Fold this sequence. Notes:
Elements: H1 4-15, H2 18-25, H3 29-43, E1 48-51, E2 54-57, H4 59-85, E3 91-97, H5 99-104, H6 106-116, E4 120-126, H7 129-137, E5 143-146, E6 155-169, H8 182-185, E7 189-193, H9 198-209, E8 218-223, H10 226-235, E9 239-243, H11 244-252, E10 257-259, E11 266-275, H12 281-293
Parallel strand pairs: 3-4, 3-5, 7-8, 7-9
Antiparallel strand pairs: 1-2, 5-11, 6-9, 6-10, 6-11
Helix pairs in contact: 1-2, 1-3, 1-4, 2-3
Amino acid sequence: MLASGLKVFIVTAQKLSFTKAAAELYMTQPAVTKHIHKLEQNLGSKLFNRHGNKISLTPAGERLLQYAYRIESLYNQLYFDLSQLKNEQKGTLKIGSSTTITQYVLPGLLHKFSKRYPDIKISVMNGNTEKIEQAVLKNEIDIGLIEGQSKRSGIQYKTFLKDEIVLVGNPKMTIAEQPLDLETLKKYPLVIRESGSGTREVIAYHLQKAGYSFSDFNIIMEYGSTQGIKSYLRQAEALAFLSYQSVKEAVKRRDLCLIATKDFKVERFFNFIYPEGSQNKLVDLLLNFVHYNF
C-alpha cells in the first residue's frame, strides 16, 4: 500500500480541506492532521498554509504534490508488475475524460474493461478537454480520453473513436425543410458549450475553415455541460451543435430532432492522451484492450 502519510497528503492537497480529506479517507480529522504534521517534520518543510478554516499549499507543498503523483504512479506500476508474476492483473488506473465522453462513451468502455480485469481499480476524473490535458501534464492521472483539436507538447495522442457533431433542436420548432446553410443558421438562437470544451473547440475550428466565427451567430447562451444543453433544448426553441454520441438516444425518443445542414459537416475523433515517453503498463493494458475490443 502507498505510504499512508503520502496518500493523506495527496487527498488533502486535492481537497484543500482537512475535513473533506478525512471524509474521503474514512479517517478522523485529528488523524489527518497528525499524518500531515509528521510528514512536515520528516521533510523539514511546511506543506500547508493555514488561514482559519481554509488551507493552501506552500511552495514546498506544491513541489511535493508533483513528486507524490509520480510516486503514486510508480507504486501502481510496481503493484501491477508484482501481480503479473502471479498471473494476476491488479493495480489502480487513474483516468480523466472530458464531459461528453464521461457521460456517453466511457461507461460502456469501463464496464467491458472491468469485466475482463475485475481486480484493477479505476478512478475517474471529469472535466473539459483543457482540464484533462493539464491533469495529464501534471501527472494527476495516468491517461485521459478527450474530444477536441488541440495538440499539446508533452502529450501523446492516440485515436479511439470517430464522432460527428450534429445540429439538434426542439422537435416543435419550425425549421426550413431544406438543409440549413450557415447564413440561414444566423437567424436561429444558438446555444454553445463553454470555453475550454472540446466540442466548442472543434466547431470553432470548422467554422473558421468555412469563413465564420461564433460572433457571426445569434448565441443566446453558453452552457457548461452537454446534458444541460439537451435539457434546455427540450424547453426552448433553440439549436445547438452537439456530439452525436450524446444525442442519439434523445433523438430516438424524439425528445430532440436532428437538423440537416448544408456544406457543413463536422467530424472528429475522441483521443486517448498520456505523457510522452510514458511506460505505464496499466495504460498499455487499457490501450491493448481497446485495440482488440473496439
